[in-house]
């Protein structure tokens, strides 16, 4: 029975009759014809056109199987890409969508015996991402390998990396801030005990002890250093912290008196020393003046 030409009323009528899914075993892949029943299929297989086709296939069945396989794969993937993009879908459910097109290449004419075998093949080839679904079936996901998609993926990866970099930098900055705050807090804690020590008066006592050692030296040495000692003595009461105990203030006062008396002694010594120091200076000056006057006289004599 010759096949109705595309566009003829017979072709359209056949199409209308062939609604819904039909029995796979009544489909002739070689002639790409679906027969509606056993009888129809029998008639078809005994037809001249079918026998001619089958003879061709018989010459090189491998070639035909490869052709059907390639076509099946191409159609399957085209539909997967166009209808689901890169979304994950149950392989079995998608196969129902694929075979809904009556002109599809039937899987029994390909080299793949089962859908799961074909799905695994797609996974191995890296064409699709294949994994076990929660309900046990295989999940299939098309991988976009087009140059545009790869570029987009690269861009997204870069963006993600940059964002992660920003995140890390931000986290580091926050950590540094926390560390600084911690250090500040520790410093303040370190300061507190110092204040307490001062209140006890221990440190103040030690400081004055040092100055006491220094003052006798100053007495023995030149008046200049003694003056420096005086300055220290003057500065010492100022350095004592204001919020100090009354007892400590009592401690300070007698020491102050001692220094004051020592200072007076130094001043008395200065009065004695200063004229002594000035005498040789004035003598030298006198000698120089005499010499200068002599020179002046000589000059005047020359001029005269
Ligand atoms: Zn046929």
TrEMBL record:
Q: Where is this region: Disordered?
A: 208-304
Q: Which GO terms describe its molecular function?
A: double-stranded DNA binding; zinc ion binding
What this protein is called in its record is Domain of Kin17 curved DNA-binding protein-domain-containing protein
Regions of biased composition (Basic and acidic residues) lie at 208-230, 263-296
Q: Where is the composition biased (Low complexity)?
A: 236-247
Any signal peptide, and if so, which residues? Answer: none
Source domain of life: Eukaryota
Q: Name one Pfam family in it.
A: C2H2-zf_KIN17
Instruction: Enumerate the spans annotated as DNA/RNA-binding protein Kin17 WH-like domain.
Output: 52-179
